[in-house]
Amino acid sequence: MNRSTKTALALTVSAGLALTACGGPKPTPGDRAGAKADAYAPVTVGKGYATKGGNINVLMSSDFQTLDPGNSNYVQTANVGQLYYRTLTMAKETAGRPPTIVPDLATDLGQASADGLTWTYTLKKGLKFEDGTPITSKTIKYGVERTYARDVYTQAPQELNSALADDGYKGPYSGGDFKAIDTPDDHTVVFHLKQPFAEFPALVSRSNTAPVPKDKDTKLDYTNHPVSSGPYKIKSYDRGRSMKLVRNDRWDPATDPNRPALPDTFTFTLSTAQATISQQLLADSDPTAITLDSNGGLQASDAAKLNDPRVKKRTAAGLLGCTDVLNFNTETIKDPDVRKAMALSIDRGSIQVQYGGARFGKVAQSYINPAQRGYVAQHTDLDPAGKPKLDEAKKLLKGKKVPKKLVYGYADTNARYKNVGTVLQQNFKKLGIDLQLRPIPAANYYTVLAGDQMPDIARSGWCGGADSGSVRTTVDPNVGPSLDGKTYGFSNIPRFHDPKIARAMYKLRGTNGTSEELGKKWATLFDRTMQDYPLVPLVRSYTSSVVGSKVRGAQMGYFFGAIDLSIVGAEH
């Protein structure tokens, strides 16, 4: 979660980006939330707009992988999901900063027991689904239970589940009672943990706790019409083509200070080529249009157009918590020295160019960064400017069995990702490796990476997990072990599993302490993990997103990596 065609959810904190010496275009001016000297302060279009009405048209190059809150680990789904479902707590976006965890369906952030092993939440009064039936503690519990049916929901978020007791539970379709959650009455939800978890209020902001009425559960078909608990509901959904959201008249704004719900409707077009999206937004051909596509749907060739004054005033921008990485399949590329050699040979500076240059992000040295709680210094032999170290790479490969052919998989909707593969082809050719490029349908991309068709190399992105300020919620999902500690974890795309490190991470999951104290231990283990090069950090994102001239309240979500749908409005 997390990813956008990045999974889950999901957020890290990153420092300001530096322009290259040759001088790229600077971020656009506007309603900046920071000091004038900060070239990368966030820019909001139409800040403070609060008028209800109108329509927002969301242009997207592909459909959502799922709309089912119980089967989603994707930031795009989380962004649109906050319109039609609510959770116990909510990650409320703030431009340029990690989100703040606030109460949503619950009255507060939860009450912990003295030993930290129990968290109790009380639901607000008057909560209803779109059909008028009450939202109760049992519907919250059932929503969580569904995410344990991993044989059905292959992309269910797992951060909350990994913290809860009752590891043996297999979901509501397999029988048995889920003992990790009690519902003593209709308004009380009690969670039982294996061990204290410092960031637990953030875990229940994940889509696991979106309520689901048991009698409306259609398993995998639930994605076609998840029952709304939020300000909007799905009126129509034509998979791969379009979707329309209209107001949910059973939603009570008095219970929801987080969502102003300004537009009357949201319409989604789900199969527009990214180049077309970019052209339409730049030309303002639809004054109510936005996009959720990564990098605002902009192509690298569009960067100079952002300096046009007519475009500048319609451009929301901000530093994100999202970082793209290259994952090495450690089951097919087993030798850590071979992986390190491949990492050193990569021209990450050229890959940055494929992302649009310094304006669209900086070369990253790690998935984690100094602004996160408990960060400790990370050690890497990668060049900070992204230059390849070919001589060092070749020395590492002496006497090694070097793979002759490897496969790089990429999402087929974005030319940038294919171009990254072309750069890698050129880099690895110098090591005697023939890299083949395999397009993967974007709608199935992360499903493929999680399955037995995972290629040797694949790009992915992460926006920090349930708590963007926490080291743990980046490290554990991406390189941590499975729930039982015996193999690699659910979101661990490189399939990294070192028994010693896995044991230490598994033990750390249950260790008492503050987020800061535990973060140092996670960061230390991550530093050790990265000496084996299961993945290579590429680019940390700075995103500019052009919106239509009638769009207001357009703010770049630090976690979402796109316009925050919960606060956007339309002049009408």
Automatic annotation (TrEMBL):
Question: Keyword Signal on this protein?
Answer: yes
Q: Where is the signal peptide?
A: 1-23
Question: Where does the sequence pass through the membrane?
Answer: none
Q: Which UniProt keywords apply?
A: Signal
- What does the record give as the organism's lineage? Bacteria, Bacillati, Actinomycetota, Actinomycetes, Kitasatosporales
List each copy of the Solute-binding protein family domain by range: 100-467
One of the Pfam families matching this protein, by short name: SBP_bac_5
Alphabetical list of SUPFAM superfamilies matching this protein: Periplasmic binding protein-like II
Q: Which PANTHER family match?
A: ABC TRANSPORTER SUBSTRATE-BINDING PROTEIN (PTHR30290:SF83), PERIPLASMIC BINDING COMPONENT OF ABC TRANSPORTER (PTHR30290)
Domain of life where this protein originates:
Bacteria
Is Signal one of the keywords? Answer: yes
What is the recorded name of this protein? Answer: ABC transporter substrate-binding protein
